[in-house]
Every structure is written in C-alpha cells, then in structure tokens.
C-alpha cells in the first residue's frame, strides 16, 4: 500500500467516523430526491440500510484488506452491498435506481470529505479512494441485482409450471394430465411430482398423459416422457399417452424413438376407454422387460 | 401454494428460511463402516429438513449422499462427508463434499457413464448423483484420492 | 405362520404367498442376509408368490435397487412371482432420475393390490341391501 493511499484511507476513515450520521442523512435525502422508491423501501428502511453500509465501510477501511478488493473481500461490507441490491431487486426497483443509489452515496461521502479537508492534494487522494471503493461497490451491486432478479424469475417460472400442470381425475382409478407447451427437465419434475402424488391420493391404476398441446416431440421430450412413464410404473400404476397428432407420430418414427413399451392412443377419449379397460383387470404391473 | 408465500417473505426482505436456533454451520461425518453410511443418511436428511427442502428434494439429496458415501466407503476405503449450507441470494441450499484418500478414478468419463461399476452397486452412483443434484464437481486422479462436491438449491 | 429372521425383517406366510417388507435401516449385510433367507423360505414353504411392501422405505439407492432386482430374478428361478408394493412418489421420482427402472420387477400401488395380483381376493362383504331389507 503506498503512503498516499494509506493517508487517503486514514482521512476517509476519519471523515466517516466523524460524519457518519450526516452522510447517512444526506444519502437518504439524495435517494429520495432521485427516485421515489414506491412501496418497496420506506424512508426508515433506507436509513437503516445507510447506517449498516456506513458502519460496514468503516470496519472495512479499518481492516488490512487492500482497497481494490475491499468490497468483495470484506464479509460485512460485501453483505451490506448485497442486501441493498437484493432489497431493490425484490422491491421491483429499476437497475438505474439501484446504481443511482450507490452513486448517491459517493456524492454524500465526497461532500463530507470536502467539508473536512483543506489541503487539495489530500482531498484529491481521498476522492480517488472513494471513487475506487464505490465503483467496485457499484459493480457488485449491479451483479447482485441481476442475480436477485434471476432468482425471482426462477421462482415465478416454477410457480407458473405448477399451476399449468393440473392433474384431473377422469374416472374411478383413472387420472389425466394434459400437457401444454414443451417438456423440459424442470417441467418433467413438476409433472412427475403432481402426477405421482395424484396416483397415491386417488389410488389410481392408470394415468393418461395427453400431449395434444405439446408442439413437438424430439428425443429430449421423448426421454422425459419415458421417465415419467417409468416413475408411474414404479408406483404400480399404468400409463397411457394420448393426443399424438399425425405429424408428431411421423417425427417420432423418423427419429427412431422407441415408445413401443408405452400404450399410446390418438385421442383422449380413446385413451380413457383403454384406461377403463385396464382398471378392470386385476394386475400388478410388469416393467418393460417382462412384456 | 407454499411457493407463493415463499416469494412473499423474500419480497419483504426477510429471506431467512432456516428455523431459528438451528445451527447451519458445516458438519463433518466420518465414513468408516456400514453403520456410518446410515449415520450419514440421517445427518443429510436432517440437514435437508433444516434447509427447508421439499420431500422430493430431500429424497434426491439423501439418495445422492448415499451413493457418494458408499463410493467413498467401497472404493476409497472410507472417507468423510462434509455438509454445508450455502445461500444463493436468499435461496437456501445444501452442499455435500465427499472426500476419500483411495486409489482415485483413473478414467473419469467411464466412471460417469451409467452401467460402469467396479463394486456392488449398479454403476449409477456417480452419474446418478450428478443427475440428482444441481451442481456437480469432481476432483480425482489415479493415486490421489477422490473429492466430489455436489449442491442442490431449494428452488431452482 | 410368522418368523422373525436373523436380521429382524419378518417374513410371513399366507397360503402360498410370502409377505415381507423392507425398512430404512437396512444395511448391506442385512440386505444380503435377507435375500438369502427369503430365497430359502421360497423353497421350504413352496411359495408361488412374494409380496415385498416398501411403503416405509424413504430412499432406494442403487444398492437397494440391485437387491430388489436380484431377489426378483432368484425368486423367478425358484418358481415364485415377486411383487414390490407401495413405493412412495419421491422414491419413484428419485429412482428414475438416478437412471434405474427396476427392470423386470413387478410393482403394485399398495399391498392390497399386490395381493390381489398374486391371486388373493378380499372376501366380499355381505350385500348391504340384505340388512336394510330385513329391517323394513
């Protein structure tokens, strides 16, 4: 660490300790002026957040960590920046508001240092340090913000999956799940979970998977279908796949996908007829090799 | 819909899914005997509960742990299982690190292929554990022992 | 009718069907002992069917899967049909994700349906109408 940097660090630290309250007030004020945060974050929350971040900054600067890696390397400081960004991501604040929040702190700190520093060389050194520190905070904040939003998207798409895969009881001991859209790994897991739970609840003997609403069946989709059928069979129930439209039958044949171990029907009503027939015969169900 | 209420809690900024008073510090478990294999399963099951996993995710993680611990016991001559509780922006997760000082795996790609076995399983241990978890890392070389690290998140 | 085996897993005989179950705490040695005892009992009891209830099994890893598949094959060689009943949904999901289908193993939703498949029928309850008729 160079002596100028050490001196600048001392100076910024001293200013932060002396004026933490004023800086926090000013920061909140700047943020309120820049972008009204809506219902998500209240003024008192902003103030709490400011206090937490400033105390983290003080303990960070007081530690031995080099300035360049202070924000990412100091646990308390890192946490404070992450919390700030995540809170905004969840409250639905825009990315601009989030980076403006960090930039506003820079402004508040620079003002405080200016008030406390006469010597222009020292002021320059301190300003450079504040810039470096808060720029890296800005980068971390943006990363966290994006990750936070992605997390929300992941949660929402999972919820959407759950509501879009209803399991319905069609007949005594017969369940059906109409699939709409494609069948990827995540979707397969949700379908399996719902279907198997339904089988257990209703003591169902046959599960119909209707793929009328599935636009294409490639090898991956077929594999996921097979996986679902296998899970149903392990439970001791049988599976019928319905709604295979002619173009899809063509693709399946052309790709050489083997669905021969699965009972398939063109329409849901044909499948239901086949299913009801199956429930009349008392049988445990053999896995493919037995057939 | 429990999912919906999860998001609600997160939106209010309180992403603490762990129950209060439950330690979420890493724990290390020895795998030296068959009894240890059962003990590891119990410990991992308890950890999945603490991390708030669904019953299906609990089963996935415990099964993966069972496969990996058995590998370490059978092929590695015993080892350790470390259970950690990582956090991804408020989403709780579970990380298992299974380490042994055995002969290592000379041909990794073969070992990850289904049906490959040198022991008493079905050869689905490594590849299966990889499919059951969200993240999978393996560090091994002939004579160097094997370390497998797997992670599963409560919501993907 | 019943006997507690050396490893603590009871095997009951109902006519020509052996009824047993697997528990969570099954370690490798007991699994092997269980397989040996069950195959011995198939021969001595001249069983034609075996029902294995696994509704209390919380996980099936590749070792337990292999035990079940070997049991099925051995029983078939000895002339008995094995039905594995009551697998829990999370176990079934995990098993297929693990890449295991229990090829060749017959499954049933619960012990009752498994027994029906093995030729056991519940004695039908007397028709309710009879009782009502006499009371009128």
Q: What is the makeup of the main sheet of chain B? A: 6 strands, antiparallel
Could you name the CATH class of the largest domain in chain A? Mainly Alpha
CATH topology of the largest domain in chain A: Globin-like
How many strands in all of chain B? Answer: 6
- In round numbers, the mean pLDDT of chain B is 79
CATH topology of chain B: Heat Shock Protein 90
Query: How much helix is in the residues of chain A?
Result: 55-70%
Write out key terms for the chains shown.
heterotrimer, A: 291 residues, alpha/beta, Globin-like, Transcription Regulator spoIIAA, 5-stranded mixed sheet, 67% helix, rod-shaped, B: 156 residues, alpha+beta, Heat Shock Protein 90, 6-stranded antiparallel sheet, 5 helices, disordered N terminus
Task: Please provide a brief summary of the model.
Chain B is of the alpha+beta class and 156 residues long. In chain B, 38% of the residues lie in helices and 24% in strands.
How would you characterize the overall build of this protein?
The complex is a heterotrimer of chains A (291), B (156) and C (136). Chain A is an alpha/beta fold and 291 residues long. Chain A folds into 2 domains: 154 residues, Globin-like (Orthogonal Bundle); 123 residues, Transcription Regulator spoIIAA. Chain A is built from 10 helices and 5 strands; from the N terminus they run H-H-H-H-H-H-E-E-H-E-H-E-H-E-H. The mean pLDDT of chain A is 84. Chain B has 156 residues and is of the alpha+beta class. In chain B, a hairpin with a 2-residue loop joins strand 3 and strand 4. In chain B, helix 2 packs antiparallel against helix 3. Helix content of chain C is 43%, strand content 18%. In chain C, helix 1 runs parallel beside helix 2. Chain C has one domain: STAS domain (Transcription Regulator spoIIAA). Chain C starts with a strand and ends with a helix. Chain C is globular, with a radius of gyration of 17 Å. At the B-C interface, helix 2, helix 3 and helix 5 of B face helix 2 and helix 3 of C.
